[in-house]
Specification:
By secondary structure, this protein is mainly beta. It has no helices and 15 strands.
Length: 171
């Protein structure tokens, strides 16, 4: 049997809102892939919560490149983030996001995810981030929440932002 991607759900915003939630995720697949086109209403980080867990139960790392500069970092115990998205001058900058969740429905291991984000930046060179994180919980993933956090306060995603979730069937 070949590996197939099955569409599970798509959420498209018709107005600004702070959270995008994908809930009641089917447990019929081996892995999940989340893709989206996010437009933030202010400079911010895009963060994720698994099963509404906003506690210090995540470990994450990222690599970032923009033009000739590079950076990396780790966060222990924080809600994982899909790094910066936001405003270039006065124009909202769409950000592509992609995340993969391995063995999301099992209950005998902590959950791991990895992904990438990319967008044009103010220097015109663009930026890409590659990240990975672990959710320190063995529960099956039943919901994924995505939200915008700007300068330690919530902000919103603009209308037109969307996120799609796909299930990968066993090979």
């Amino acid at each position: 049997m070949a590996v197939t991607y099955e569409p599970i759900t798509t959420v498209t915003l018709t107005s600004s809102q702070q959270f995008i939630t994908l809930s009641n995720i089917s447990q019929a697949y081996t892995h999940l892939i989340l893709v989206g086109w996010i437009i933030a209403n202010a400079v911010n980080d895009i963060r994720m919560e698994i099963n509404s867990d906003s506690g210090n139960n995540y470990n994450s790392a990222r690599l970032s490149a923009s033009g000739s500069s590079r950076s990396s970092g780790t966060l222990l115990g924080n809600t994982p983030y899909l790094p910066y998205a936001g405003v270039v001058g006065t124009v909202l900058t769409p950000q592509y996001i992609e995340a993969q969740f391995a063995y999301y429905s099992t209950t005998d291991n902590k959950k791991a995810a990895w992904g990438k984000t990319g967008w044009p930046n103010s220097s015109g060179s663009g930026e890409i981030d590659i990240w990975g994180y672990q959710w320190n919980n063995t529960n099956a993933i039943t919901s994924i929440g995505i939200y915008a956090q700007g300068n330690n306060s919530p902000t919103t995603f603009a209308a037109g932002s969307y996120v799609s979730l796909y299930g990968i069937l066993r090979a």
